[in-house]
Amino acid sequence: MSSGKIKETLMRGVFFLTAITSIAAVVLICVFLLINGVPAIGEIGFFDFVGGQKWAPTNVPASYGIFPMIIGSIYVTGGAVIIGVPIGLLTAVFLARFCPPALYKIIKPATELLAGIPSIVYGFFGLMVIVPFVRDSFGGDGSSLLAASIVLGIMILPTIIGTAEAAIRAVPESYYEGSLALGATRERSVFRAVLPAAKSGVLAGVVLGIGRAIGETMAVILVAGNQVNIPTSLTQGVRTLTANIVMEMGYATGLHRSALIATGVVLFVFILIITLSMQAIKSRGEKNG
Amino acid sequence: MKKSSGILAITTAAFILTSAFAGCGGSSTSGSSASSDRQSGAFDTAKTISVITRESGSGTRDAFVELTGVLEKNGENESDNTYSGAVTVNSTEAVITNVKGNDAAVGYISLGSLNDSVKSVNVDGVEATADNVKSGDYKISRPFNIAYKELKGVAEDFVDFILSSDGQAVVTKEGYVSTSENPAFKSKMPNGKITVSGSSSVSPVMEKLVEAYKAINSGAEIELLTTDSSSGMAAAMEGTCDIGMASRELKDEEADALKSTVIAKDGIAVIVNNSNTVSDLTLEQIKSIFTGETTEWSGVIE
């Protein structure tokens, strides 16, 4: 074998190993979650765990119901989508079709900078600015579903803007020009011809944003109030699945600890559903495009 | 032309943003009256109390709910009745930040962490001070216990150190209340290895004590395991550790099997915002606030 060939085989092995690393990490995390979490779900009882309304790990006998946290995660994520998607989408349309180049040089890096800010900084900003704002404007404690939604809505902006802008730019210029030629205005052409064509890319951005929102922990824990109850108004506090894990992991022992890991299993299932729907959207987009 | 379309897009975005906020305002049920009340400088007793609590499992919360009666015991059963609408945070600093920033808030922290940014209220007329904790007049306090079967070698020397004036100085420096008046420490310099295990509330001060002791007797090796009070007592009874730590009184079966010594006391201060006019609460009132029975400050301020 020539030295070139040996090198090639060797490097192929190196590349294979690096490729395996990420897969191994995913597999290890799955195995860890299942081994540690599933027995706890079995011990608590699946329906008592997922459907239980009471989380009182220190009571005797203890209750481990994470239903309020599941609802909390869904509400907070929904709120973030309601606030973040319209702003993000319209920003993407503006950046892709209407923005003067001089302004683009400022707005684009600014949205990218938004993605680089650590989540604990978002949380602190939320605690110092948004929580008092919510308390003074809408009443309640301030630490609430609304505050968490606003903070998360801002946090998912860069994800949505980036993906949606790329999707809008990928639409062939002929769609836009054809629409203009038929007599439509510029706005109409963008919203009726270009945006529908970019639909799957935009949806992918939204789903990525949802994934970011549901997994966010440090920012949410500072502004959400973390009460274990199902909120009936926007000014009440919520506890998300991630917040539940991180708040109590430090002290938990025995079944309490296992229940927290099992909370991670439920979160993992959510992320799995989001990733799968992401794949589905992608493959559908490819088929249509 | 291009510029005007750009402006249109911005306006649309701004419109959606404002309507989103307006929508939130409309659907929020709990009163908008709070914002109008805020303008008057004096403390408004009609305000809804914002209860701040710690996460389940926290030693401070465990002690607080037990001492105030928020924890309801019924035979074997124990139920933590903390108000379900209480904001839950996971550090002492977060409690202080929340109380500092919200004039209707009430929380509780370890006395050692109390500072000027918040106000501590008197409990049953007794001020939360180290002296009142020491004398036992201040009700919301808990002992830091160590328990053991028998002491010999390093373990005996180490306990002597903890109870000496040198050890108690470490306790005071960490913000806790000293309990022993023993003279300065003279080590017998034994060699060996011991294990200390138990409460996560006691272990920060124990860590400092171990450090200080090792500086005197370098021949000793002390392993510190942080679990919880019950595990620590169980380990001491089984003999898997030499000294157990508990941030509460010993239960009967533990007291039967072990000898215990109080090495420090920790008071828990009930804190409110500096602008709050309340200065005195009874234990009953504190219980009623933290279980959610009293929801407005007017319920506890005349």
- Protein structure class of chain B: alpha/beta
Largest interface: A-B, 57 and 55 residues
How would you sum up the major sheet of chain B? 9 strands, mixed
Q: What is the strand tally of chain B?
A: 13
Number of structural domains of chain A: 2
Averaged pLDDT of chain B, please? Answer: 83
CATH architect. name of the largest domain in chain A: Orthogonal Bundle
Structural class of chain A: mainly alpha
State the distance separating the first and last CA atoms of chain B. Answer: 66 Å
- In angstroms, what is the radius of gyration of chain A? 23 Å
* Intertermini distance of chain A: 46 Å
CATH superfamily of the largest domain in chain A: MetI-like
- Identify the quaternary structure here: heterodimer
What does this protein structure show overall?
The complex is a heterodimer of chains A (289) and B (302). Helix content of chain A is 79%, strand content 1%. Chain A has 13 helices and two strands; from the N terminus they run H-H-E-E-H-H-H-H-H-H-H-H-H-H-H. Chain A has a two-stranded antiparallel ribbon. The longest helix of chain A is centred in the first third of the chain and has 42 residues, at 3-44. Chain B has 302 residues and is α/β, with parallel strands linked by helices. Chain B has helices at residues 2-27, 33-37, 59-68, 92-101, 130-135, 153-163, 165-173, 203-216, 229-238, 252-257, 283-290; strands at 50-54, 71-74, 77-80, 87-89, 105-110, 119-120, 122-123, 141-148, 192-199, 220-227, 243-246, 259-272, 280-281. In chain B, the strands form three sheets. In chain B, strands 1, 4, 5, 6, 8, 9, 10, 11 and 12 form a nine-stranded mixed β-sheet that branches. In chain B, strands 2-3 form a two-stranded antiparallel ribbon. A two-stranded parallel ribbon of chain B has the order 7-13. In chain B, helix 6 (153-163) packs across helix 7 (165-173). The interface between A and B is large, with 57 and 55 residues.
